[in-house]
Design a protein that fits this description.
Blueprint lengths: L19 E4 L6 H15 L5 E6 L5 H14 L3 E7 L2 H10 L3 E5 L8 E8 L3 E2 L6 H14 L11 E3 L3 H11 L8 E6 L5 H8 L10 E6 L21 H10 L3 E5 L6 E4 L5 E2 L1 H18 L6 E5 L5 H8 L3 E5 L3 H11 L3 E3 L5 E3 L5 E2 L1 H13 L5 H6 L5 E2 L3 E4 L3 H12 L4 E4 L4 E5 L4 E7 L5 E8 L2 H15 L2
Parallel strand pairs: 2-3, 2-4, 3-7, 8-9, 8-10, 13-14, 13-15
Antiparallel strand pairs: 1-5, 4-5, 5-6, 10-11, 11-12, 15-16, 16-17, 18-23, 19-23, 20-21, 21-22, 22-23
Helix pairs in contact: 1-2, 1-4, 8-9, 8-11
Length: about 475
């Protein structure tokens, strides 16, 4: 954004911890994007290297992709335009081609937004701690001086399609050809899963699988005419739930706008929690790693996933490692531990075989494989992975979040409770009957509560008690 008085650019409104997001025409424009493209090359030392650039179905993404490519080429990088891609397609391309890249998406944000997710070669994440702040500062410098200096040799801009290679790679990781026939409803939310689902699960590019795919909102439309592409909100799952029951389907899949997250509903239309999906996929990945000779495969889970996840991992002979919330933390620990798989309560799923990056489609394929190799319905299969009752995330709008957490601590201090402060404050009953976490939002006046217990009455009692204290 510019200030009319000083004519200086300040990009802090759109540069976040892990990516860039802003309102098109205000905090993110083609001029800004071109400067970011140039700064990306300089900060990562990519002059003379190949850089990959793509975007989602938002109306501004093609223009922004071209602007980023122009800035990158000015600074001497050779750009391959990937055209329409999901975010996990970018990660695939950065990993398989060992090249840095960027994709234009605002994920599940409303239509007026767009943004940039950037990645180093090998799909290594870029965050404010690993280059994003420096990219912001240099882009501001270029904007404020009114021009981007040209490198000695200007880079070339070409075009490359990675959809077929991406689809083939995923199919090699999970063989679905032997599955029993399944009827699968997929809600793409007018997002990028409308492109990737027919390629990976259908017969558009590769031979057909034993699935009948029933499409919901596969038309790529960045105005999101049917519902927001954010399946984390229960109301955005309603069309999928209705369609699964109406068609007598075995499973429903819902993807967010850039298709890096996947949510699952069973044949009754009931959501299967991301924690249950984490447990289900972890079991498969532990078995596969052990078959390949790995003694104790590592599974990563953030501290808001169900305690069923580490229990299941231990039962299957793996080792569970608990982390903070957030993909840069998960990816870093995935790499440190050489973990085979990682899952978050927000339906981000990470795979060692996918360069430690998150991919909703690969997670969906594992769930389809687990369902397809046995005869029971998903509701029965899912129950094995959901022995506890969760509150889901509940937000309370509170200005003094620290004081609210302290009131809760005082209220519980006389009880047999352990408290840890890895990410917010997690209170755990020593008898194992319940736990809850309170986390302050970094960007909003919200205190977030997640609670879990052995049964519904216990969960409701703890939930209501904590909310009463927090909101007092």
């Amino acid at each position: 954004m510019t200030s009319e008085q000083t004519k200086t650019f300040d990009l802090s409104a759109s540069f976040k911890a892990y990516d860039v997001r802003g309102i098109v025409g205000e905090s993110i424009t083609a001029e800004i994007v071109e400067a970011v493209g140039a700064a990306f090359i300089d900060v990562l030392g990519l002059e003379g290297e190949t850089v990959l650039v793509g975007g989602d179905m938002r109306p501004s993404s093609p223009e922004f992709s071209q602007a980023f490519a122009k800035g990158a080429a000015t600074r001497g990088a050779n750009v391959q335009l990937l055209d329409l891609i999901s975010t996990d397609e970018l990660y695939y391309a950065c990993g398989a081609l060992n090249a840095a890249g960027a994709t234009f998406t605002a994920s599940h944000n409303p239509a007026e937004y767009n943004g940039i997710k950037m990645s180093k070669a090998g799909a290594q994440p870029i965050s404010s701690e690993s280059g994003l702040k420096e990219i912001q500062a240099l882009a501001e410098e270029y904007l404020n001086q009114g021009s981007i200096p040209a490198a000695a040799t200007r880079g070339q801009i070409g075009v490359r399609d990675v959809l077929k290679d991406y689809s083939e790679y995923l199919r090699k990781l999970v063989d679905l050809s032997g599955s029993r026939p399944l009827k699968v409803v997929v809600d793409a939310g007018n997002g990028m899963a409308g492109l990737t689902t027919p390629a990976v699960l259908g017969d558009k590019i590769l031979p057909g699988l034993p699935f009948e795919i029933i499409p919901l909102y596969f038309e790529l439309d960045g105005s999101f005419p049917n519902h927001p592409a954010n399946p984390l909100e229960p109301e955005n799952l309603r069309d999928l739930q209705t369609a699964v029951v109406k068609h007598g389907a075995d499973i429903g899949l819902a993807f967010d706008g850039d298709a890096d997250r996947c949510f699952v509903v069973d044949e009754k239309g009931d959501p299967v929690s991301p924690s249950a999906i984490t447990g289900m996929v972890a079991r498969r990945e532990i078995a596969r790693a052990k078959a390949a000779g790995e003694e104790t495969p590592v599974i990563i889970h953030n501290l808001l996933t169900s305690k069923a996840v580490p229990e299941l991992v231990a039962l299957d002979g793996g080792r569970a490692v608990r982390t903070r919330v957030g993909h840069s933390f998960i990816k870093a620990v995935m790499a440190q531990e050489s973990a085979v798989f990682g899952g978050e309560h927000s339906a981000h799923f990470y795979f060692r075989d996918f360069w430690n990056a998150d991919t909703g489609m690969l997670a969906a394929m594992h769930v389809l494989a687990a369902l397809g190799e046995q005869d029971g319905p998903l509701s029965e299969l899912g129950r094995q992975y959901e022995p506890y009752v969760s509150s889901g995330e509940i937000n309370s709008e509170i200005e003094d979040k620290a004081a609210a957490v302290e009131r809760v601590r005082v209220d519980f201090e006389s009880e047999d409770v352990e408290i840890d402060n890895m990410d917010g404050s997690t209170f755990t009953a020593k008898d194992g009957s319940w736990w809850f976490n309170l986390r302050p939002s970094n960007t909003e006046p919200f205190l977030r509560l997640n609670a879990e217990a052995k049964d519904q009455p216990t969960m409701e009692k703890i939930r209501d008690r904590v909310l009463a204290i927090v909101r007092a």
